[in-house]
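Consider the tokenized backbone below.
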């Protein structure tokens, strides 16, 4: 049986309290007795717990056994109860510290929740704004896409015509370039021939001036001779060949 149960049974068996200490005078003597704080219904006085009685040639102190057991055990019971009370006080202090720590943590969490709620509102507003912006951007994108498609449709035909003209002009340019190269090649050949004729003409001119054409080592055909004569006649005159040579 636990100590707590033992105390409970002792209290049930003893005279119901509360009790008190009182003093009683008997002649010259004053006695210290224990009785109830309330009056007994029949005695109209406190019920005696520890009393003093007299008989014929007898004087004695009387107490009920259950009350005596409780009085005898009272120091032990009180000591145990005080220790229990101290232990409970220590537990209460620990619990108070835990409650304080929990309150501090709860306050921190409360503030954190407030911050998060504020952040949530801000984020919600940002998301709402971003959704609205995205929707507007999608509408603008679709509009620009339609405009671009229309522009491409409008520009597609002229672009094809322009490309066709470009390719035609390029082909014509390349053809003209090839013809120009061929003409340039022929012109170089003519210039080389003219240079050779010019050398022979100078020699022939010197012989004609000296009047000693018959002694010349030049072996010229009639056609070449006539050509030299014409060249000599053209000396100092403006002509296409002279212009190109000066240029």
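A designed sequence for it:
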């Amino acid at each position: 049986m636990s100590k707590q149960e033992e105390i409970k049974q002792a209290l049930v068996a003893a005279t119901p309290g509360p009790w008190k200490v009182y003093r009683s005078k008997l002649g010259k003597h004053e006695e210290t007795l224990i009785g109830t704080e309330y009056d007994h219904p029949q005695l109209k006085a406190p019920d005696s717990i520890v009393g003093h009685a007299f008989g014929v040639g007898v004087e004695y102190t009387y107490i009920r056994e259950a009350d005596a057991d409780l009085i005898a055990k009272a120091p032990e019971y009180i000591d145990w109860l005080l220790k229990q009370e101290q232990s409970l006080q220590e537990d209460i202090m620990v619990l108070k510290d835990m409650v304080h720590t929990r309150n501090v943590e709860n306050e921190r969490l409360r503030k954190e929740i407030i911050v998060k709620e504020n952040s949530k509102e801000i984020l919600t507003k940002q998301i709402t704004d971003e959704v609205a912006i995205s929707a507007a951007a999608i509408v603008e994108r679709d509009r620009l896409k339609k405009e671009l498609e229309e522009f491409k449709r409008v520009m597609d035909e002229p672009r094809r015509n322009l490309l066709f003209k470009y390719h035609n002009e390029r082909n014509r340019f390349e053809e003209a370039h090839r013809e120009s190269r061929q003409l340039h090649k022929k012109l170089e050949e003519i210039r080389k021939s003219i240079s050779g004729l010019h050398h022979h003409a100078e020699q022939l001119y010197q012989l004609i001036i000296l009047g000693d054409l018959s002694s010349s080592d030049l072996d010229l055909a009639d056609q070449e001779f006539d050509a030299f004569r014409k060249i000599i006649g053209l000396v100092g005159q403006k002509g296409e060949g002279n212009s190109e040579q000066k240029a």
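Residues 204 and 218 are 8 Å apart (CA to CA).
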